[in-house]
Amino acid sequence: MRLPEPVETPDGPSVPAGQLARPTLIFSRTPCLGKCPSYTARVYADGRVEYEGFRYAPVEGRRQLTMSPAVVQDFLREAEQIGFRQLPDSYSSGASDMPATVLSITTAQGTKQVRVEENAPQPLQHLFALIDKHLLSALNQAGDM
């Protein structure tokens, strides 16, 4: 996966050209029949985050958050390093009540989505944990936690 070409912004940090209007990645945790956190975060190259928390999410409701554009680029680099585009589209158990983690990444090469219910490779689990960590940090900085 080739990373988008950066452009300089008046505020200093660079963001990928053409990636400001649409999310660079969409990260979701789906509900289950129990108390699984459910939320979706749309992350843009410039660090904007549109977060919506549902039942049992760290924060429920809609929030506008921010994170460093460098963090977004770190997500993309990590995805490239683990071969995200070559991963199967789904890691499924076949059970209907399993929660899933869904990651969709859009670059100049198009959009790739991976849905995981269980048995994800360790590098993909690490990427999910990295995204979760930065989302929780952004929620904390916004004073929502």
How would you describe the overall organization of this protein?
By secondary structure, the chain is α+β, with helices and mostly antiparallel strands. It has a single domain (6-141), classed as Mago nashi (Mago nashi protein, 2-Layer Sandwich). It has helices at 69-81, 122-141, and strands at 6-8, 14-16, 25-29, 39-43, 48-53, 61-66, 90-91, 101-107, 110-116. The strands form two sheets. Strands 6-5-4-3-8-9-7 form a seven-stranded mixed beta sheet, with helices on one face. Helix 1 (69-81) packs antiparallel against helix 2 (122-141).
Question: Gist?
Answer:
This protein is α+β, with helices and mostly antiparallel strands. It contains two helices and nine strands, in the order E-E-E-E-E-E-H-E-E-E-H.
List low-confidence stretches.
1-13
Strand proportion: 25-35%
CA-CA gap between termini: 35 Å
Number of domains: 1
The H-level CATH homologous superfamily, spelled out, is: Mago nashi
Biggest sheet features: 7 strands, mixed
Task: Walk me through the topology.
Blueprint: E1 6-8, E2 14-16, E3 25-29, E4 39-43, E5 48-53, E6 61-66, H1 69-81, E7 90-91, E8 101-107, E9 110-116, H2 122-141
